[in-house]
Every structure is written in C-alpha cells, then in structure tokens.
Write the structure tokens for this entry.
Amino acid sequence: MQPPEDGPGATRGADDGRRFARTPEDFACLVCGATVRGDGYTNHCPACLWSRHVDVNPGDRAAPCRGLMRPIGVEMRARDTVLTHRCESCGHLRRNRTSPADAESALFALAARVADEVSLRGPGGAGLRDTDRGSGAPRRRGRPR
C-alpha cells in the first residue's frame, strides 16, 4: 500500500487511481428513519439498504446531487456481498460492499425482488410475454436456424 496522499486516511488504489477518504459520520436514514452509526466505511442504511449520493470518490462528500440512492441489485459472491444503488435524482450507479451490520432480511428481500423483476422482464429487460420469440426460453447453441 502506498503512503496516504491528501490528508489522513486518503489512499490511491493501485489499479484505478481513485482516492478513498475514510469519513466516520453518524446519520439518520432519510427513508426509514433509522439512526446509523458510521464507521468511516458506512455508505448505506443497514436497515433498509438505501444510500445517499454524496460522494464522487468514496468518502470525499463532493457530489453536488445529494439524491437518494435506491438499492437495485445484490450480488452474492464467495467472500462478500455487493449492493448496487441507483440515484433517484441523476441516475448515477454505484456498487458497494455490504457490512455485517446490514439486515439479512433486507438483503434477501432485495434479492427476491430482483429475481422477480428478472423473471417478469427477462434478462434483457423486455417482457417475455411481449416478444415473438416463442416460449421465452433461451436458444440452444449449435446449428443456426
């Protein structure tokens, strides 16, 4: 790891050049009202998983938008779980790791909601019932039709 740049806690990632500033802040969730005790890495409410668009780079609080960020996806990987948020005001997308403090019920509810939406729309976003491609089942590989 390289020495901190631009003040305490700021580091530059070796592969992407982005800076991270650890900013411990407590906040009240604007969606569910929960009081959240921030540890410098907290970027969303652990009760409802909503976030706020405040950072350009993690921890810098430089985003002018300040819109609410809806949790729209959850990816469960081998060693961690990643949330995807979309800003309700400007559409900005951001991926963030979850915390052990995050409510498991909220994570599973989000995963179920996403699965339901995908089953209704299909992976490409179009409704399966709105296509003339037959049953909506994926095409088999092999000889072209």
